[in-house]
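In response to reviewer comment 3 from the previous cycle, which asked for concrete evidence that the modeling workflow produces usable outputs, we include below a single protein chain processed end to end. The sequence was submitted unchanged, and the resulting structure tokens are shown without manual editing.
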Amino acid sequence: MFIQAVIEHLENNGLGVFGTNIFGSLYPSNAPDACTLVKVSAPPELSKDLPTQIHGIQILTRAANTSTTPGYVLADKQAQDILKLFHAEISGSKWLSKHNYIIGNTTRYYVFSSRALQLPIDISPDEKGRSEFSINMQFKIRL
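The workflow returned the following structure tokens.
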């Protein structure tokens, strides 16, 4: 599954450990306050260009306040690090998609391009007062 390849890519780049502070589809009841959730979301469009496929992925980061740092600062930092991993930088006055790389250990996917559909956004505290940020990503992959 593509979602697992995204999770593995986060792990391979030091942004967490699956089952410890990265989870897929839903937060388990014993998830720590500071963690990342990777979910499948609807892609913005269907791919008509064979042999490619477009995947939509939503990535949520959350964190609680610590004695020295507000939770929203911690959750935003994790979201920004993830953004840098899957989205290229600004060139001149334009954001550029990240191009031509491979993700996944179990099943490998060739990513033609990946891009954020928006900058990380604060989606309000959750039911326990932890700050949460969301990024919606689009991945165009080779079949």
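The helical segments are 2-12, 71-86. We consider this sufficient to address the reviewer's concern, and the full set will be provided in the supplementary archive.
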